Amino acid sequence: MIQVNHLNKSFGDHHVLKDVSASFEKGRVNLIIGASGSGKSVLTKSLVGLHEIDSGEILYNGRNICTMNQYELRDQRKEIGMLFQGSALFDSMTVEQNVMFPLTMFSNMTRKEMLDRVNFCLDRVNLEGRNNLFPAECSGGMQKRIAIARAIAMKPQYLFCDEPNSGLDPQTSILIDSLIKEITLEYNITTIVITHDMNSVIEIGDHINFIYEGKNLWQGTSKTIIQTDVQEVVDFVFASQFMKDIREQLK
Amino acid sequence: MKLISQIGKYFLMLWMIFSKPEKMRVFWKKTLEEINLIGVKSLPIVALMSIFMGAVIALQTASNMDSPWLPEYTIGYITRSSTILEFSPTIISLILAGKVGSNISSEIGMMRVTEQIDALEIMGVNSLTYLVLPKISAAMFFFPVLIIFSMGLSIFGGWLALILSDLSSTDTYIFGLRSFFRASDITYALSKTVVFGFLIVSIASFYGYYTRGGAIDVGRSSTQAVVSSSVAILLANFLMTQMFLLK
Ligand SMILES: Nc1ncnc2c1ncn2[C@@H]1O[C@H](COP(=O)(O)OP(=O)(O)OP(=O)(O)O)[C@@H](O)[C@H]1O
Ligand SMILES: [Mg+2]
Fold it and tell me: Is the ipTM value over 0.95, yes or no?
């Protein structure tokens, strides 16, 4: 599990994360939701050490990554899989090479074993047989799925997904959501998902952190989010009239 | 002030590049790819430049030889020594700073702004070593090869120009080429090339790696990379000429 205590992060004068504390537990899907620009991506990037934070603690099973040296940090990161908001596929490599990349760098598998693993991961995101395409030849949704396949190739202990289903059609969206949920339960890993998708919030939100202007304003589950009366949450989650009606019925 | 902090950051980056690659096999494979990319693919432009360079040096020398005291073989001698000492190593390196430098800087810069470098780091890969070390090794190994090739073609270009415009004969030219020859000149020229290769690749990588923003910034970095590495080459050339030739 990952425990965050009193995290602060600013860029110059711009104070983005304000005293954020949260805990992300193992074996469940932890969601981070919030408006555009509220600091969700900055929070996740801080969690994995891509941003240096100003103050606070980030504990992976009790070990503070902020005080790790670069070698310890690299070792810790080998347990992390991450899906970036913009996919971040290596565009000089094919789909197969992308997914295989972490395996070639860090595993001692034979080529055959690696290929099996790659095909297995591609299968899971419904992209079997697309091994030899280049990222530029894939649609945005396909790129997302390739990136997920790459993130899970090494069987990570921690999985971070920055908007895994933005830009996907509803069906693929649901497919990705259930894939993330399945992987989380199957391997009993700590999963953190940033999302805007209300469907995901209700479907897979075992635990939800609502970030509002850089603060962790509200925490709860997909059940309690329907009942809450915190105005910012209600305004965000049930923004449209349609959603408001649904809320009334669910309550 | 900004310059000093930039230079400090540059040396810090060099320090981080030189650590052991995660997988030696991957490193060798990437180095071979880079030799092809930044070395072999530069052969045509180097060839073109060198032939014309040699031709112009020979013609210039020939046309300035109106004094009867200068023997005709001076043309070959001058063409050879200026080619080997300065024109091939320095001018060709400047050309390569433009071609290879902008290429490297925009490639790495693009990887930075599309978060590919973050993706490498997240996997636990040392992105600087992974991306830059093979390029530096490739350049330091292959630039000397390019320069030897350039020297040969430049001298050939000189001969071709002289013969075509009937300014000298093959025998005299070759006699000139062979007079007062010092093998140490070649060693000196190749050592310079290794330094230039290192400067071009490391400076271009520096600007690419620390790009922030989007496509516009990638373009800006690559311009800065070319300017800075050209200046670095000129400075280094000046220093090395002082150290080696005038001692
Ligand atoms: N590298 C950076 N340098 C300076 N400011 C940054 C940087 N990255 C993010 N910010 C600022 O931090 C704030 C939060 O950005 P962030 O990317 O976390 O938003 P987000 O919640 O992920 O939004 P979205 O849902 O649109 O992805 C923004 O105001 C942004 O301007
Ligand atoms: Mg974001």
Answer: no
